[in-house]
Design goal:
This protein is an alpha/beta fold and about 270 residues long. It contains seven helices and eleven strands. The strands form three sheets. Strands 5-6-7-3-8-9 form a six-stranded mixed sheet, with helices on both faces. The chain is globular and about 55 Å long. The two termini are about 15 Å apart.
Length: about 270
């Protein structure tokens, strides 16, 4: 195992700037008596796309839960869009991991997106025209209009992921939190979802945090990455985080970083 690399991109504690979407100031999170990670101090700029990476069990989903106000922090301070996290904040859209796998056979794509707006008011026929227009707009924004009336069980994995993102978008959030949105997708669908997220950042100005196992599909759009290393949370620009020593230590296996002739980066496990 190589020596522990010096953390990068750790920012000094300071008041939140209007340009910050997320601020962590010496944050630690715990489940019962077990500290999941600690010493989280960073700021995430608005309108950025950021990955959250680390080995299984390092606390990536726990980070999202803390940002959503679902898990109280043990120490420190979190600010999300200028205030402490709280449950049900409609400024945040969230797509849980494997969300669509829990749906029944009969749920239509349009109805699922409507649920993101109507909440428990499942009587979709009672939605006012303005709400129905917002649902159609969110579906159109992710390119799901051609299959909006089909059942979710009839859609491909990539189509289901688009609908799940549309549900997160329907409330017009400023931040999107996505937990493993590329899992179980083939390369083409991964590329299409990544391109979609890049367009949403441009068209809607959203800040996007993506829990990811594999950085490679995201490298072309990432501004930075939160990495959970040795029980601590750090943040760095993507060019700093894509580093052989750091990634090798992070994942406990040799990782190579390759730069192509056109300057693009990708990572691979060493033989």
């Amino acid at each position: 195992m190589p020596d522990t690399p010096t953390p990068i991109g750790v920012l000094s504690s300071r008041p939140e700037s209007p340009d910050d979407a997320i601020l962590l100031d010496d944050v630690s999170v715990a489940r019962g008596p077990t500290v999941i990670w600690s010493e989280g101090t960073m700021t995430i700029p608005r309108r950025s796309i950021v990955a959250a990476i680390g080995p299984n069990g390092s606390g990536k989903t726990t980070l999202l839960e803390a940002l959503l106000g679902l898990l109280p922090i043990a120490t420190g301070r979190i600010e999300v869009l200028g205030r402490a996290p709280r449950r049900g904040d409609d400024r945040i859209g969230y797509v849980p991991q494997n969300y669509t796998a829990t749906l029944g056979e009969a749920v239509r794509a349009w109805d699922l997106v409507a649920l993101g707006l109507a909440g428990r008011r499942w009587g979709l026929g009672r939605l006012p025209p303005a709400d129905r227009q917002r649902i159609d707009t969110a579906i159109g924004a992710v390119g799901a209009t051609p299959f909006a009336t089909r059942r979710m069980s009839q859609l491909s994995g990539g189509q289901q992921q688009r609908v799940a993102i549309a549900q997160a978008l329907v409330g017009d959030p400023e931040i999107l939190l996505l937990d493993e949105p590329l899992a179980n997708l083939d390369l083409r669908n991964q590329r299409e979802i990544v391109d979609l997220l890049a367009r949403l950042r441009i068209d809607r100005g959203v800040t996007i945090v993506i829990v990811a196992h594999d950085l490679n599909p995201l490298l072309s759009v990432l501004d930075g990455a939160i990495y959970l290393l040795d029980g601590h949370a750090h943040y760095g620009a993507v060019g700093e985080v894509v580093d052989e020593e750091l990634l090798t230590h992070l994942y406990g296996t040799q990782v190579r970083v390759v730069r192509t002739a056109t300057g693009d980066l990708f990572t691979r496990s060493a033989p």
